[in-house]
Amino acid sequence: MAAVLVSKAIGENLLSIYVDTGLMRKGEGDQISKILDKLNVNYEVVDARDEFFSSLKGVVDPEEKRMIIGAKFIEIFERKAKEMGAEYLVQGTIAPDWIESGGDLRDTIKSHHNVGGLPEQMELALVEPLRDLYKDEVRNVARELGIEVSERQPFPGPAMAIRILGEVTPESAELAREACAIVEEEIERAAEEGRMELPWQYFASVLQVKSVGVRGDIRAYGYTVVIRAVQSIDGMTASYSKIPHDVLDKISIRVTNELNQINRVVYDITNKPPATIEWE
Amino acid sequence: MVFNLPTVRIFVVDNGGQWTHREWRVLKYLGMETEIIPNSSPYEDLDVDGLVLSGGAPRVGLDTEKMGRNGEYLEKAVFPILGICAGHQFMAIYFGGKAEPAGIPEFGKTQVVVDEEDELFVDLPVSFQAWLSHNDEVSELPQDFISLAHSNNCKHQAMKHTKRPLYGVQFHPEVEHTEHGYEIFKNFLKVCEEMR
User: Fold this and answer.
1) What domain range includes position A199?
2) Given a cut of 80, is residue B1 above it in pLDDT?
3) Looking at chain B from residue 136 to 175, which residues have their Cβ under 8 Å from any Cβ of chain A?
4) Is B150 a residue of the active site?
């Protein structure tokens, strides 16, 4: 959205960069070029998967993850900026990003990578045209401009890194990605068939809680997947979505059958506040 | 057609709340001229028809200094003031009441029951769903204040001064999940307009 607005203003002088962090959703890498082609903006894809995984090695604290990811994005943008002589960095920062990142009187709820996760010293000056808007307002502007991509569900910048409650590795990212894909598919199907309202945001997170199971007459000791879906307008308050039991059942069966490290699935029934939408 | 009616100016005093910017958004959507101002802004610089004192991270009983010049606004204001959450608690303390850690703090969904018919709750049902997020609460009303609403776990969900246009609410009318939030703001704006 910010890319389209700025592209309209300065055309070819804008280079949009899609950073492949290795933490994106299933199939996202393939979709992204199509989306960017359709948006008619000048873009480049940077493969930074190895860089992200190596900088996140051994890190389990959610705030530390967010700081590392924020700094890594800037490092990549500054590298590109040097190549092309760019002075400004356009970010799609929206109101909840800076509100929840805190500062001065405001408490830090979580450091959004594009605000609280920025390094102290930056060479690029920031341009953030959406700073005072919430998601619903961004979508209103996007509809005016005919940008379909804004209808996609919200997705956090740190991506799967904060849906893995523990260390981020290529393997744990893959697990979270697959679990998210199953939740998305089943909920989208149920919504299409009119069995439930499509939630505002819906995904899975992988918990490090291990529990005992039995698989094929053999003891299992595996991880837990949590199903999270919420209704919201602006992301500042949210109520958990009431997912029909047959949909939960289908998700549970698929997750435990298709992902052999998972032998338990739970359903998050917490509102925001006191929870936040994502687990980290 | 009349174009020259001056817009009503209602500013939001930022006490560091998660929903301060939501208050600004609601006022903006209701057609007000509005700005978010730091709570260190001198009273003399305020050219407004009303003020909203936002909620915030400060525990008002413990961090009084973090509430900046809220006291000065409450002392000198000739216009209406609506205190929300920490703003409401600070108002109670400032006028001699008490705000203390809540026996059972409320986070998220709560049912608020209106006890007193009042300009703030005009045309509202007696009971509605509101969203909250507070650790402290008003435990004792100051002199000249009356309680307007309660919830199961909080006696003073709303209060008002009996002689001046000062109002406080513990719940958050500015968030989307609170029912009738816009109406409560509209009712407050009506008071501001009438007093201009």
Assistant:
1) 163-267
2) no
3) 175
4) no
